[in-house]
Amino acid sequence: MDKLPKIALPVIFAVILVIILISKSAITIGSGEAGVLYKTFGGGVVTDEAPLGEGFHLVAPWNKVFIYEVRQQEKSEKMQVLSSNGLEIKLDASAWFEPKRESLGKLHQEKGQDYVGRVLLPAIRSVARSVVGRYTPEQLYSSKRDAIQQEIFEETKKIVEKQYIQLNEILVRDVTLPPAIKEAIERKLKQEQESLEYEFRLVTAQKEAEKVRIEAQGKADANMILSASLTDKILQDKGIDATIQLSESPNAKVIVIGSGESGMPIILGNQ
Q: Per-domain residue ranges for the chain?
């Protein structure tokens, strides 16, 4: 009984020490995350091995694990840039991105956990200023927004992919022009639309007039051909045919043979 406390104390102390070591060594990496291992006595950041994946890990208590989100993320940015003629344009854009998992150690070693603020956002701002500066406010407002979005994406991607960042998309959500410039552009676009509508009506009217003229000319040509072909003999034959048809009609009539001009019959009747 006297020896039990002497044995129990070291055991209890060892158990407590193990619990402390486990608590210091246990790392749980959540869904959509990865860990970069830092070895205090083993060369610092591990860059030649895959990062720690999701789940439970035991790490030496003197080492550290830096956790990164490796799924797609979004970062919004509002910028003030200048157009090609020096007018100030407000640009609201979003970037979809994620760190390159296989290069996570190098990203941590060279850029750190604030890589978004150190690399991604400065690149987006610089490229946006360059791209928007190629266009006039009218182009930015009307027809070139998709082109601007694509150019910002492609040029930013070339920069950040060398910095261990995968850029998936750039979305230009809004382009805000100075109110006076916006109103002037809207007036010009309205006038252009009205001009196009007037030209359309004019062309339509010209086509309709041409159609009527062609139809009238066709009828006139047909009448000329018909008149040229109608001789006295043909007219007399047609008159005889008409007289025969009328004589066969049930309506009451009186036919006087040879009393008309050129000997054509005259038909008298009440119907």
A: 4-69, 73-182, 235-269
Rounded distance between C-alpha atoms, residue 141 and residue 177, angstroms:
8
The count of other CB atoms within 10 Å of the CB of residue 119 is: 20
Distance between CA atoms of 88 and 82, rounded to whole angstroms? 5
Q: What is the CATH number of domain 73-182?
A: 3.30.479.30
Backbone angles phi, psi at 22, to 5 degrees: -65, -40
Nearest Cα residue to 119 out of 101, 109, 107: 107
**Contact (Cβ atoms closer than 8 angstroms) between residue 165 and residue 107:** yes
- CA atoms of 35 and 38, how far apart (whole Å): 10
Closest CA to 156 of 126, 133, 117: 126
Closest CA to 33 of 128, 98, 111: 98
pTM of this prediction exceeds 0.90: no
Q: Write the pLDDT tens digit of every residue in 224-264.
A: 776 666 566 665 666 666 666 666 666 655 555 554 555 55
Question: What does residue 199 show for φ and ψ, rounded to 5 degrees?
Answer: -60, -35
Per-residue pLDDT band for 189 (boundaries 50, 70, 90) equals low
> At 17, phi and psi to the nearest 5?
-65, -40
DSSP letters spanning 39-69: ETTTTEE--SSPPB-SEEEE--TTSEEEEEE
What residues contact residue 232 under an 8 Å CB cut-off, 6+ apart?
262
Rg (alpha carbons) of the chain, rounded to whole number? 47
CA-wise closest residue to 107 among 145, 161, 144, 147: 161
How far apart (Å, rounded) are the C-alpha atoms in residues 117 and 93? 15
Q: Which two tokens mark 270?
A: 């009440």
